[in-house]
Write a structure and sequence with these properties.
The complex is a heterodimer of chains A (317) and B (173).
Chain A lengths: L1 H27 L3 H29 L1 H6 L5 H31 L12 E10 L8 E4 L12 E3 L4 E8 L4 E5 L6 E6 L5 E5 L5 E6 L11 E4 L13 E9 L8 E6 L8 E7 L45
Antiparallel strand pairs in A: 1-2, 1-12, 2-5, 3-4, 3-12, 4-5, 6-7, 6-9, 7-8, 8-11, 9-10, 10-11
Chain B lengths: L2 H20 L13 H12 L2 H16 L10 H15 L1 H8 L2 H26 L6 H39 L1
Classes of the chains: A alpha+beta (317), B mainly alpha (173).
């Protein structure tokens, strides 16, 4: 009897394991049924999340409020905002300075700011069970948001739009281990890749083997083709420590983000980058060259024919 | 397990999933997060009989796979929790003893949650997923374990009475 029950359990286990593996295979092969099921779930969950976040947000900040107990919260918030604005300005100024040095005044400065954005409220966060770092916002396709758009907070880059439903969107945060963004060091204009590590610090890998990273270097996004997923010039973070290992081909460093991902209330999705004037083809005007025409003047050339010198008269003896 | 029981379990898991995604996930737990969903699912698996534990594991996994924030392929959680269900089913006798001792049961749930997360990470590695640095993952698993130990005593008595009611109604039928 017990053996029969054991066999049945094993058979059930095998059937369910095979079913699970079948689903995994379908998903990895990109079958839309499994992808759309998550999208439908998000559409169903979004109104619930929106309602709950309104009521639940004070409770959600319970632990962080305990940490800040004794401080004047309003005062602290004001200082934080002012500080973050200054940091963002500093990043832009440093970036512009580096570009100017390199291009020696031939290029125009990129317009500061001027992004067309859609502000949205954070209504949910990714579950810790999924190991992914995401947030859910209360704006979606009906507001003009689409996949692969840059998302910023008041401090700088925070992520990219991963999934969109009509009224909500899931943002993959910069801290997610699968997150990668091309960045530029404002000082030297060297290009690198910033990788999420799952925590508040990120790894910078420089692409240029001859480039150098210094502590305090400011990073901005390098930008993507067609401004998707990243628009250029968004402040990302600051280098806190440089890896001095000589074994690797390129330099690496630890970067601290400007944005505090644990304290996101309102974020903005950049729907278009600042418009830039169409680039005009430069046709360098050649400088007039001075042509010196040399006309050879016939000069008296010394004759090689010996001129007969007056011969001494022979004196008759 | 009857089809009605399967359907009602699915509904229960979906409600629990909604609570997890919309409320629990909003709390900024220090160190790491807490998964109410996993803790309750493991507790339900522990209360079930042989076949029930495996089916309950699969159903809870399928609902967790619906998570739109997950990077993992659909079906990964179903696979992991089915395996966890089987482990619980295979050790049914010793687990049944643990359910009657509250502290042991709390620890069993906490270790069950941690084991599920470890299985998930290992399977993710086999599939080539990037789930962060080793330190970060360890901190997350230990954090989940600690929070489960803290919070499990609050919801386990409710689940126990709920389970008794479900069993009684099943016997009456």
């Amino acid at each position: 009897m017990a053996r029969g029950s054991g066999n049945r359990s094993r058979l059930l286990l095998i059937i369910l394991l095979v079913t699970s593996l079948f689903l995994v295979t379908l998903d990895l092969r990109g079958v839309s049924l499994t992808k759309s099921s998550r999208s439908i779930t998000q559409s169903v969950l979004a109104p619930v999340q929106k309602g709950v976040s309104t009521v639940f947000s004070p409770i959600g900040r319970f632990f962080s409020d305990i940490k800040n107990f004794g401080n004047t919260k309003d005062e602290l918030d004001k200082v934080k905002i002012a500080n973050s604005l200054l940091k963002a300005q500093l990043a832009k100024v440093a970036d512009n300075k580096g570009a100017l040095n390199q291009l020696k005044g031939l290029l125009n400065l990129a317009g500061q700011g001027g992004y067309k954005i859609i502000p949205a409220r954070v209504i949910g966060r990714g579950s810790s069970a999924s190991f992914s770092q995401t947030i859910t916002i209360d704006a979606g396709t009906s507001d003009g948001i689409s996949v692969n758009q840059t998302v910023i907070s008041q401090n700088g880059l925070i992520g990219v739009v991963k999934v969109v439903t009509p009224n909500s969107a899931i943002i993959l945060l910069i801290s997610d281990p699968s997150f990668k963004v091309g960045v530029r060091i404002a000082r030297s204009q060297s290009i690198g890749v910033l990788l999420g590590q799952g925590n508040s610090q990120y790894q910078l890998e420089l692409l240029d083997p001859t480039g150098t990273i210094e502590n305090g270097d400011v990073l901005v996004t390098n930008g993507s083709q067609g401004n998707r997923p990243f628009v250029p010039g968004v402040p990302v973070g600051q280098v806190t420590s440089v890896d001095q290992k000589n074994s690797s081909l390129t330099q690496t460093a630890i970067v601290k983000s400007y944005a505090n991902l644990n304290d996101l209330g309102v974020v903005s999705v950049i729907i278009s980058a600042p418009s830039v004037a169409p680039k005009t083809a430069i046709n360098p005007t050649p400088q007039p060259t001075i042509t010196v025409l040399v006309t050879p003047t016939p000069a008296a050339t010394p004759s090689l024919i010996p001129t007969p010198s007056p011969s001494p008269h022979k004196s008759k003896a | 397990m009857s089809p009605i029981r399967i359907a009602s379990s699915l509904v229960f898991f979906f409600v629990l999933f909604a609570v997890q995604e919309s409320a629990i996930s909003l709390v900024h737990f220090p160190v790491a997060g807490f998964s109410l969903y996993l803790a309750v699912a493991i507790a339900l698996i522990a209360y079930e009989d042989h076949d029930g534990a495996i089916i309950m594991g699969f159903l809870s996994g399928i609902v967790l796979d619906l998570s739109p924030t997950s990077n993992a392929p659909f079906g990964q959680w179903a696979l992991i929790l089915t395996l966890v269900g089987y482990v619980f089913a295979a050790n049914r006798e010793s687990i049944f003893d643990a359910t009657s001792a509250p502290l042991t049961f709390v620890l069993l749930i906490a270790f069950g949650v941690s084991a599920s997360l470890i299985f998930y990470l290992v399977f993710g590695l086999l599939l080539g997923e990037s789930n962060g640095s080793f330190t970060h993952d360890i901190v997350l698993i230990i954090g989940n374990l600690v929070w489960t130990v803290i919070f499990a005593p609050m919801f386990l008595p409710i689940m126990r009475s709920f389970q008794k009611v479900v069993n009684k109604s099943g016997q009456n039928k």
